[in-house]
RNA sequence: GGAGGGAUGCCCGAGUGGCUAAAGGGGGCGGGCUGUAAACCCGCUGGCUCACGCCUACGUAGGUUCGAAUCCUACUCCCUCCA
C-alpha cells in the first residue's frame, strides 16, 4: 500500500473507513499542509443517535485526532422540509422547538467523542436552518440552479435507479440534492470547510456539493465516503432485542451498550475494533491472532473500549464487572438495571409474570406469561415453573434484591424499599 | 381533467359474507446445541383474564345484514394508464 503524507488519510485507509474519495492525493496534500475543516451532516429528527451514526461520528473523531477541524452539521433546515430519501413515507415535520431540543441532546453525545470549542481544531456544531430558511426561491434558482445540469442529475444513482424502476421521484426529492450541495458551498464560505464526509449512499450528494463549490466560487473541495456497514450475516447495524442501540445513557444503559458490543459476531470483531475504538493497530493485530472461543477476549476488549468512549471509563468498568459476575461467576452484578418495589407488595406476594413486566423485561402480561410457558423466565436463576408462581419477601437474597431474567442474557433486579 | 387498481397485524403479503385474531414469509422473543458467536433444529409472536369469556384490530366515517377485513355510500391517501 502506498503511504500517504498525512496522518489523516493514512489512518482512514488503515482502519477501514475509506470507500470513495473525490481526489485522495490532493486531499492528502492538503491535509499534510495544514488544518482541514470537514463536515458530516446529521439528521435531528430524534433526541438521540444510535449505533448507525457511530461510524460518521468516529470519522470526525479520527479527523480531529489527526489535527483537523470537525464540523457537525445539523439538518435543522432540511428536517423542516422532510428528507424524502430512502422510503416513500414522508416524515413527520417537526417544529423548531422540537428540532432545537433534539439538537441540544445530540450535542451532548458528540461532546463525548469530540472536543468542542473555539480553537483551530475544536469541533463546531452548525445548523443548516441558519441559511436555508433565508433562501429566496427566485434568487436561489438564478444564482445556483443554473449550475445544476438536469442531464447530469439524472445520471446519479439515486435518481437513475428510481427512474429505471419507474418509481416516482418528486420534485421535492429532486431538489433535496441541490439543497445539500448548497450546504457545502455555504460551509465553505463561512468557515472554509473543504471536505464533506458521509456514508457511501451520500456519494452523489457530496459530489454535487464539491462541484457547486468549484463552479460558483472556484474553490477546491473534497468528498470522502465510508463503506456501508453491515454485520457479517448481513444485518444492518444498530438494532437489537430491545430496539435501537442508542448512544446516550438515559435511552440505553451503559451495561446494555456494553452487551451490544460483547455480542458481536466473530467475523466482525476485528473490523469493529478498527472502526469503533482507539486501540492502536498493532494491538488489534495481536487480538486478531485469537481463534475459537478465545475470540471472546477480543469481544470484551471491543465492548470495553466502545463503552468507555461513549459513557466514560467508570461506566465501562462497571459494565464489564457486572457482566463478569453475571455470566462468568453466576453472581449478581451491581450494574444490572434495577427497579424498586414496595415491601408491602412483596409481603402479599406478586405474581411472577407481573414482576417480569414491571422490570421491563416483558412488554405485557401476556408476553410474560408466554415467556414463562416457554421456559425462559427465571427468578434468582431458577426457572419459573408456573405463571402464577408468586414472588415474596422470601425470594430476597442477602443483598435485599431479587434477580429476574428473560432468557440467559437479559436480567434485571427488583429491590424492596 | 378522464379511466382503472390499491390501502390488511412491527414489515412484506394472502384472504371477497360466518370455520378469521386473520394463511405464508421476514423480523423479534424463548428453548436446544455452543464460546453471552455464527449456522442449524423446535416453540411463541394483539390486550385483559387465562378456564370460559371480554375488548381492540384489516385507510376514515357511515350504511346493509342475525353476522363484514370481505357488500353499499361518502371521504382521505397512494399507484397505473390516457389527455
Features of this protein?
6-stranded mixed β-sheet; 19 helices; 46% helix; RNA-binding
Report on this model:
- The chain is α/β, with parallel strands linked by helices and 417 residues long.
- The protein contains 19 helices and 15 strands.
- It has helices spanning 7-14, 24-32, 54-65, 76-81, 96-113, 129-132, 137-143, 150-153, 157-164, 171-191, 203-217, 254-262, 269-276, 281-288, 295-311, 313-328, 343-348, 352-358, 365-373; strands at residues 20-21, 37-42, 69-74, 124-127, 193-199, 222-226, 239-240, 243-244, 338-341, 350-351, 377-379, 382-383, 390-391, 401-406, 410-416.
- Strands 1-6-5-2-3-4 form a six-stranded mixed beta sheet, sandwiched between helices. The protein has a five-stranded mixed beta sheet with strand order 9-15-14-11-12.
- The longest helix has 21 residues, at 171-191.
- It is elongated, with a radius of gyration of 25 Å.
- Residues 82-92 have low confidence and may be disordered.
- The chain binds one RNA strand of 83 nucleotides through residues 88, 166, 168, 232-233, 239, 241, 259, 262-269, 292-296, 299, 323, 326-328, 362, 364-367, 369-371, 373-377, 387-388, 406-409.
How much β-strand is present in the residues?
Answer: 5-15%
Shape: elongated
Rg, Cα atoms, Å: 25 Å
So how many helices?
Answer: 19
Between the first and last Cα atoms, what is the distance in angstroms?
Answer: 62 Å
Low-confidence segments, given as residue ranges, are 82-92
Across the major sheet, the strand order is 1-6-5-2-3-4
Strand tally: 15
**What structural category characterises the helix and strand content?**
alpha/beta
Mean pLDDT: 84
Largest sheet: 6 strands, mixed
The proportion of residues forming helix, as a percent range, comes to: 40-55%
